[in-house]
């Protein structure tokens, strides 16, 4: 019978070295399970918590105005809004209409809406202004047609905002409603310098 050789000190040292190398390899390979890991078929894979991507700040074209000249609104209490204006905001909006050019002046599309009952939005879309008018102003009017002593002109002092003619498609947000007419029936676009009416949009329920 063949006698089995005993394990001497040298053999034990070799086995210990193999075990140490195996442990070092496991740690270096990142196989050590951590909190929240999963075992599948003998393999250990780390499960990382899902993090939602942060939305990037989107560019806006909104023009926020609070007075007739389009100056920034100071942080103060707004003037009292007439009851008729509040009723118009709540009951009549949204409204929209085609911006019909006057003598080839300005054409496009207009829509007026509301943010709750505290702000009014005026969206100008696809606005095209004839050459010779560097900038235009936007006004709200109680009239559906040009009449009065100067039917082809408006007082630009009552304008909501002034826009460059080559980029007149914008969204205007009115945060101060105290200066809005009580019964708005149209939106007027006029030359900022002369007040000549370039286009008018008669508003209808959207």
Overall average pLDDT: 74
> Total strand count, please?
12
In terms of per-residue confidence, which ranges show pLDDT below 50 for 5 or more consecutive residues?
1-5, 30-61, 66-76
Overall body shape? globular
Strand content: 25-35%
Helix content: 10-25%
Query: Structural class of the helix and strand makeup?
Result: alpha+beta
* Order of helical and strand elements: HEEEHEEEEEEEEE
The largest sheet is:
10 strands, mixed
Number of helices: 2
In whole angstroms, the N-to-C terminal distance is: 105 Å
Rg: 36 Å
Account of the 3D structure:
It contains two helices and twelve strands, in the order αβββαβββββββββ. It is α+β, with helices and mostly antiparallel strands and 206 residues long. The strands form two sheets. Strands 3, 4, 5, 6, 7, 8, 9, 10, 11 and 12 form a ten-stranded mixed β-sheet that branches. A two-stranded antiparallel ribbon has the order 1-2. The protein starts with 8 loop residues before the first helix and ends with a strand. The relative contact order is 0.19. Mean pLDDT is 74; it is low at 1-5, 30-61 and 66-76.
Layout of strands and helices, then pairs:
Elements: H1 9-28, E1 38-40, E2 43-45, E3 62-65, H2 83-91, E4 95-101, E5 106-115, E6 119-129, E7 135-141, E8 161-164, E9 171-174, E10 186-191, E11 197-202, E12 204-205
Parallel strand pairs: 3-9
Antiparallel strand pairs: 1-2, 4-5, 4-11, 4-12, 5-6, 6-9, 7-8, 7-10, 10-11
């Amino acid at each position: 019978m063949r006698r089995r050789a005993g394990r001497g000190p040298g053999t034990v040292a070799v086995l210990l070295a193999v075990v140490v190398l195996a442990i070092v390899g496991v740690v270096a390979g990142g196989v050590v399970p951590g909190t929240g890991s999963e075992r599948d078929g003998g393999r250990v894979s780390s499960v990382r918590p899902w993090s939602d991507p942060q939305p990037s700040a989107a560019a806006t074209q909104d023009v926020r105005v609070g007075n007739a000249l389009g100056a920034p609104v100071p942080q103060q209490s707004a003037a009292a809004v007439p009851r008729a204006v509040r009723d118009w905001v709540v009951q009549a909006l949204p409204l929209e209409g085609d911006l019909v050019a006057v003598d080839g002046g300005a054409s496009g599309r207009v829509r007026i809406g509301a943010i709750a009952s505290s702000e009014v939005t005026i969206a100008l879309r696809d606005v095209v202004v004839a050459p010779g008018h560097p900038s235009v102003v936007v006004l709200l009017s109680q009239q559906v047609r040009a009449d009065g002593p100067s039917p082809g002109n408006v007082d630009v002092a009552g304008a909501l905002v002034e826009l460059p003619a080559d980029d007149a498609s914008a969204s205007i947000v009115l945060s101060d409603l105290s200066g809005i007419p009580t019964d708005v029936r149209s939106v007027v676009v006029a030359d900022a310098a002369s007040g000549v009416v370039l286009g008018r949009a008669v508003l209808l329920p959207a």
